[in-house]
Amino acid sequence: MSAFHDVAFPAPLALGASGGPERRTDVTALGSGREVRNTPWRYGRRRYDVGGAVRHRDDLYALIAFFEARRGRLHAFRFRDFLDFSSRAPSQPVTALDQQIGVGDGAATSFPLTKAYGEPGYAYVRVITKPQADSVRVAVDGVELASSAFSVDALTGLVTLGAAPAAGAVVRAGFLFDTPVRFDVDRLDLSMDAFAAGRAVSIPLIETLD
Predict the structure, then answer these.
(1) d(Cα 159, Cα 36) in Å, to the nearest integer?
(2) Phi-psi region for residue 2, left (φ > 0), alpha (ψ -120 to 50) or beta?
(3) Which of 37, 45, 150, 162 makes a 20 to 30 Å CA pair with 60?
(4) For residue 9, how many C-alpha atoms fall within 13 Å in the half-sphere facing its CB?
(5) Residue 176 and residue 2: Cα distance in Å, rounded?
(6) Count of CB atoms within 10 A of residue 145's CB?
(7) Position 196 pLDDT exceeds 60
(8) Spatial separation of the C-alpha atoms in residues 38 and 36, rounded to whole Å
(9) What does the alpha-carbon distance between residue 98 and residue 86 come to, in Å, rounded to a whole number?
(10) 61 Cβ partners below 8 Å, 6+ apart?
(11) How are beta strands 4-8 and 76-79 bridged, if at all?
(12) Backbone angles phi, psi at 58, to 5 degrees
């Protein structure tokens, strides 16, 4: 049975990955020349290829070991997308005010981590399920909370406050996060080009909902 393994894909190989967000859009051309565009997907999905990051024999070994432990496509795992792993731009430090994750109603204490992309009114809001727990910072109505005033579930991204925010109070958070992915192949195609050098033709990864 498949499961999520709370382990990270080797960072040196993740740094050399290519890929990014994927969307599915159905486009129908009408007789008038206009188009009707719809999507069956509520959320985007990330795809990556880490084959280009494999250069050395030790990289091949690390990849084989990680692939075998995941049983190919069976088990999902953490992947650090170094282009999109923070609540703000990668070059900027995380702050407790980065992303709005909820508004208090005087009773609720739990809020899922989310990240908004784009302009207000058009933004896409992505649910973040695999945060780096020790990186999460939280603020209520602009005042940052002590780390002891909330807890974070690193496997769901749910933030639970020790006290319910007052009605109308804006809850914001900053964080680092990983993307849950799995291998999209059950076979590795690897080769040795020299004594200490090797390569992989293609090693696709695909985001999951784990």
Answers:
(1) 39
(2) beta
(3) 45
(4) 30
(5) 26
(6) 19
(7) no
(8) 7
(9) 10
(10) none
(11) parallel
(12) -65, -35
Cα–Cα distance, 102 to 122 (Å, whole number): 18
Q: Can you read off the two tokens belonging to residue 184? A: 């999209």
Amino acid at 95: T
Q: Which value, to the nearest 10 degrees, does the dihedral of the CA atoms of residues 141, 147, 150, 152 take?
A: 120
Between these two residues, 42 and 191, which has the higher pLDDT value?
42
Is 0.90 topped by the overall pTM?
Answer: yes
Residue at 122: amino acid letter: Y
Residue 160, phi then psi, degrees to nearest 5: -120, 120
Beta-bridge mates of residue 181: 77, 207
Q: Two tokens at 124?
A: 């896409």
pLDDT digits (tens, 9 = 90+) for 175-194: 999 999 999 999 988 766 55
**Partners of 173 in beta bridges:** 99, 138
Q: Which two tokens stand for residue 130?
A: 């695999």
46-68: b or e for each residue (b if 16 or more CB lie within 10 Å)?
bebbbbebbbeeebbebbeebbe
| Helix intervals (H) in the chain | 11-15, 57-69
**Mean pLDDT computed over every residue of the chain:** 93
Cα 187 from Cα 197, distance rounded (Å): 20
What SS3 class is residue 148?
helix
Tell me how many degrees the CA angle 79-85-91 measures, rounded to the nearest 5.
140
Integer Rg of the chain from CA: 20
